Amino acid sequence: YIRKNFIIPDARKVWNKHAFLAAKKELLIRKYDAVITTGPPHSTHLIGLKLKTKFGVKWITDFRDPWTKIDYLQDVKRWWCTTYFDKKMEQIVIAKCDKLISINNAIITDFGVTKKSIRITNGFDSTDFEITKKPSKKFTINYFGNIIKTRNPMPIYKALKKINLNVELNFYGNIDENLMAENCKNHPYLPHTEMLDKMINSNLLLLIINKTSGNEGIITGKIFEYLAANVPIVGIGPNDGEAAKILTETDGGKMFDYHQIDEISKYIELQYEHWENNKIHNTKCEKYSRRNLTKLLANFLDK
Question: pTM for this one?
């Protein structure tokens, strides 16, 4: 309660003094063309604001998540004055920065700075996916990551109950015990290389977008590794959101709204049929490789 109301914008702000002094030392020793600050924690942008004010250096802000509209603040009771000053701080940073990078279009649109902004999503490292795919004896649907209250797998449970197929559903990561079902298996976290091996050797990958307000703009970092695994993806979330558009443009899979149980069942049956017939799945996702995203960032910096 104290942290969310008395420290604006976040508790990581205590680091700013030390970071500013280190950056100041660098700027006095060498000439830099630009400073980039990335958040969350969005208190980091206040360092950039101070550097811009003191040294007149070009300043680029990078938003990996919203600021005042970030999901963990949705259900928190903050004083009106805290909310006011947090919003004011956000507006100053957005107005004063020279350029802005964001993970999705929703943040850019909400900030109202499309002319000086660029969308650069998360991505995948191609070298991580040089793993041989093995033939599978059982059709497996795998999910990697945490399962929490707002990321509820109930639609997939209901969809599997409607089909008469031998399907194995696995969750790798922490799962809320209240969200477990009889027809699924829970496994602990795996080291990254083992996780990628499991991912590539899945038959269907499960993606769940948090059921929260403003979730149309949510693009999980996970989606890009899913795409690189070249395995069809069954997504549960807003079917008009940015994640849904990425699945469509890459032929990576399909997003279904939380209530589309029959449609999810039919999609699983279709992928099961493809698996039985050894049909190869091809995802067109190279634009989201880190190499191509870095080229995009380099061109943005050059301009």
Answer: 0.88
